[in-house]
Every structure is written in C-alpha cells, then in structure tokens.
Amino acid sequence: MSEMNRTGLDPDGIFDDPEYRVEGALKVTGGARYTADVRLPGMLHAKFTKSPLPHAHIVSIDITAARKLPGVHAVLTGQDIGPRRFGKVLYDWPVLAYERVRFIGEHVAAVAAETPEIAEEAAASIVVEYDELPAVFDSEEALGPNAPILHPDPSDYYYSAGKRPPIPHPNVQGYKLVEHGEGDIQRAFAQADHIFEDVYWGARQHQGYIEPHGCVVWIDETGMVHVYSTNKSPYSLQQAMARVTGIPAERIVVDCMFIGGDFGGKGLSIDDFACYYLAQAAGRPVKSIMTYAEELGAANPRHGAKIYMRSGVSADGRLLAHECRTYYHDGAYAAGRPLVGPILDGWSGLEPYKVPNVRLETYVVYTNTVPGGQMRAPGAMYTAFAGECHVDHIAERLGMDPLEFRIKNAVRPGDAGGTGELTRNPRAVEVLETLRRETKWGQEPLPTRRGRGIVLRNRDVGGGVAGILMRLTSDGQIEAISGAPDQGGGSATAVRRIASAVLSIPRERITVRYGTTAKAPPNPGPGGSRLTHVLGQAAIAGSTAMKERLEELAAEVMGWPAGDVHLENDRFAVGDGTGESAPFDDVARRIASGAPVEVEGEYDSAEHRSPEGPDANFCAYMVEVDVDPETGVVKPTEVVLVVDVGTVINPIAHMGQLEGGFIFGLGNALMEEVVIEEGRVTTLNLGEYKLPTQMDVPPLRTILLPPSDGPGPFGAKAAGETVNNAVAAAVANAVANATGVRVNECPVTAERVLAAMRKAR
Known about the structure:
This protein is α+β, with helices and mostly antiparallel strands.
C-alpha cells in the first residue's frame, strides 16, 4: 500500500470542515428516486397468495377464479416456474413455494394485475389445499432425533462459495467449529481455579428501515432484463438473477440508486425473481412493493440466538479457557444468510480479550419461521451481548472491578483475541483507560436503583473489491461514477472529498454519480463496514490515475515540457510552480475539447493485508440507568462512548454514524423484538414492534481517541457498525449493577427486569 494511503495523517486539515451531503438536496426536495417512485408505461402490480401454515405439502392450487378476474394479466405458481431457488450463498428459497411450504407467509402463487387492489383480490381468490406437516420452531429442538426434516433433499441447492461444507444434521444451514490453543479444551479448563457458565438468549429483531422491500422488473424489446430494486448490492443481485433465470448476467441491468434505509436488511431480494417471471408471462413491466405488515411478517429479520458460555479463570483473574456454543434460530431458508465469513468463522463474545484456549461452535439452524437475514454487524450483536454480560458476571463473582478485569484481560499488541486471530494495533487498553478517566469510574457512590454498566468491543474494518470510473466532462469538470447505491451512509460525499484531496482541486469541480451495473465498475455495495475503505481506496487509485493523465495532457495542449507539469492547488504548473501556470478549469476545458478522458480505479483489500493482522476499531461504553422497582422500566440517564478511529473523512457523517449506531443499539437493547408464536409473527406493525425515538435517547458524550493508522484512504478506519453491538450488554450490566439481578435475555424489557427482581425477592 502506498505511503499516502497508510500514513493515517491529514497534514493539511483537508477533511476538517464538514459539508452537506452531495445527494442531500435531492432527498430533502423529494427529487431522489426510490424504487417505489418508478412508473413505467403499461406497468402491472404484483401480489402474492401466502401460506397460512408453517409446514405443509401443497396438494393442489386452483387459480381459476384469479385468471377470470378483469385486469389480471398473469397468474403463476411454483409448478409454472419449477424448483428455481434464490439466495446469497446457499440458494434454497424457492421463487414460489414448490411442493411444500416451510413458513407462514411464504409465497405460494403470484398475480400481476392492472392495480394493486385487483392483484390483491385475485391473490385472495386462489384456493390452495394443504396436507399439514409437523413443524419445529426452536433451534435446539430442530436438531433433536425426532425433529421433522425441513429440507429432505438439499443436494441440488446451489452453493455459490464452491462446495458446501458438511453439516452435522439435516436441519443445519451452516456449521463451524473454531479452536485454538491446546488441542484438548477440557485439559485447559482443568488448569483453571474458577469455572463460570452462563446461557444467553436473543430475540428476532427487524432492521427498522422505513422503505420496505420492493422492485420493478421489465423486459425490453431486445430481451434485456431491467431491474429497479431496493437491494443494496446490485452486482450480487445481477448474478443471482442470472443464476435463477438462466439469462446471462450481461443481459441483466440492475439499478438500485437510492435505498430508504438498510441496516443490513437490504442485501437480499425476495420478490424480484417472481416479478421477472410475471413480467415474462404478461409481457409488461411488473412492480412489487411490500406493505410493512409483510415486511415484519415475512421478510428477513435478524436471527434469534441461544448462546452457551463457559470460561475458566485463574485465581488472579486471568482468562485461561473459553468455550461457546451458539445456536442461531434462522428460519425456513438460508437464502438471506451468507453462511461464510464471520458469523460462522467464529464471532466470539470474548473477541477483545486474550484467551489462550478457545473452542467456538456455531450452528445456524432451519426452523419453520420467517427466514432470517442480516442486521447491522450480523452475528456480532448477540455474541457481544453474551460475551460482555458473561465477562461482567465473572468479575462480579470474583469480587473484581469490571473495568479492572477487562484491562487485565484486554488484548495488547501481539496477543491473539477470542477467535485466535491477531489484530493490528489493538487499542483496547487505551479506550478503557480513557473511559475510566472520562467517567470518573468508581469514584462516587450512586443513588439507590441507579447503576452503571461498561463494555469493551471491537469491530473489524471490512474489506472487498471495488472499482470507480473517473471521467473528464465536456465542461472541464471531473465525474466519478460508482456502482455503490446510496443507503444513507454518505459514501458519495466521502468519494468527493477523497478525490478532491488527491486531485488537489475544489470539491465543487467533482460530481459523484451512481451507475447501474451497465455503466459502473463492479462494487460490493455498502455493508460489512467496508465502503469507505474499499471504495475510498478505489477513489484514490482512480484520482491518482486521472491526475497523472491530466498532467500529461496539460503538457500537450499548453505546449509545456512533458513530464514536468504538476496539478496542485487548482492550477497546472510547470516545474516547481515558479514558472508558467494556468487555472485548472481553463486547461481542463482545452483538454476536454479533444478525445474523451476516462480512467478506472480499482482496489482489492486482499492484496494489502498486514502480517500483523486485520485492522479493527475498538470502543468502550459506560451506560448509566435508573430502574423503577415497581415496573421494571429501565431509563438510561447518561452514556459515555470512547471510540478508536482512524482519519475522519467527513466529521458530520462520522459523528452521525456513531450517534446513530448508539441509538440503533439502544433499540436492540431495550425494546425491539419480533414476537413469533407457533411460527406466526404477531408484531406486524411499528406500534407493536417498537423503534426508539428521540424521546428515548439519553445524553450521549463521545470521545474519539487520537487517530490511528487504518487501512482506508489516508488511514481511515470504519464507523458504520463500530458502536451499535455494545449497547445491549452495557444496558444489561447497568441493570445488574442497579438491582443486583441479571437479565440474560435481549431485549432487556421492563417485563423481564421486573420478573427477575420479583424472582430474587
């Protein structure tokens, strides 16, 4: 990696001043085009007949009445489409249910009609006869010897990551065992002076975006397939559409320009595939937009979890051995789950700590419930909840201060963390010591029923491959074209700031545009805390190449010596700048009058891995709460966040990510729960599924450590998923500190707190 990319420095202060987002005006004026805004000539509307049962064979489907309804142009069932399945890695979710249904709300038939109302009426008129099968709703029960097998013949499921790894039970979607240290973990436990065991639970939760899933699909006269979608990963969707339909990827154009919120949930398309077949059958564009009841009942919420933890500790409070067995309750299909990467490679509850002997066993399990998907830092939130509550419980049982216990065991340079991996420049001790100082930890007594909880967490800076196209326009401006959709993260603004810094021209001369899969280089899309890193580095590569090309062309059009022209401070100059020079815009217009000038920038994080281990942000929270002894209501009163950052590209956006991450985590901690009863989601609106509002947010003080060198542009790290995972455990630990009782289930609702206090009386 070049010196410029690795310094972590911003010597000229070029990123100090905040700015409005480049897409902000479009959003606040209503000019931003979302999928629901797409209107095409002759467009039809799709609705679906849904399964009322969690598990059943489909005996027959009568679509006669639906076909006869005026305004209906296409009616399809699984028998019409065949056993075509979609997914991210494991393609196991049928476009329409084929031969059996596996969860309440699964699509059994699809209708395309002139209006949504006609389509809804037609879908309701379809008569389906079922032969009900035994269902299973609990992940551990699904692994029992008498459990019904949900996918009896998975051999023809496509697995995009190569050969599907072996699984220990037919109802397992994915399985991974991670071990490091002694070969025999029990021998390591035998050396411990104390052994502690706990069990933790995490509920299903919805990502909480305001825009529901949706798509518009049309096939033009040449056979090109056009897809407008809420999917944040257009290139992945393009490949999935090609796999499902058999159409070459280059014949599919995906457009996902603006996305109304994501938080992990918009990486999966659900209705896009069925709409393709409806559009094919009807010969007209087809649009599908979920209602929010459909979103909450049948989309892709965060998995539920049950986590068993066991740790061995020395007499002086050092972690010696740890084993964790995690069951992710992931629903009827694995399509929304990558099944590769951190969730199976061993997100550890003790990741920020030095533990010499570890055994992590992870099961992602089929159940007859709504299929699970990704949600902000997937896999990490519940392991963080379990791990940090477990660490606090250990410290309490040992009679140690929880902050001192964490400092004693925190990873330091050269230490392997809870997954056995090194981290480059871990700053765990720094964030904890700063938290101690900023909160005056342990110096003052607290009032009755008030408690303080702390946590320590880390989050890897995501990687991947990204490209960007840089173009000189006819009016002498610079255009940067990216295939990364805007889901609210502000990546376009970051790209403009980075390009401005490299090119040494004002930001106003740079326009960042979104390009469809037909117009922009491949991009993984936002997610995994990667976009500033990989897209930002691609922007550096593209801007560097563009600057070099412009300097060459400036010499040609101005008649200056080749190889001696430099672009600095918005001017082209010869030599050291004391000789001939001209403003950027004058020279750029002269260059633009000739042949087109385009360059591409590419970046692959795998080519820049450090031998010291991956980069990560570390953070520590102190959350203070009051607990009402009569109702169990938990009211956060003060929050202090200390976070390790690299170079901040955009101060306002960076702080918005941190503060938004805290509020997101607060909802996870205290209120958000998708309630499922016998396979049926009962929280089908945002009145029942509660999201935090401004009235729920306590005073929050954020302290940034001095920037450390990160892998992103100019030493940037990440912000998007750094701080949200730690909030729930901090709240639970504060409740324990205030009441003397522990709630090991997330969210930590008033009902659960009150029940725990009553049980302890």
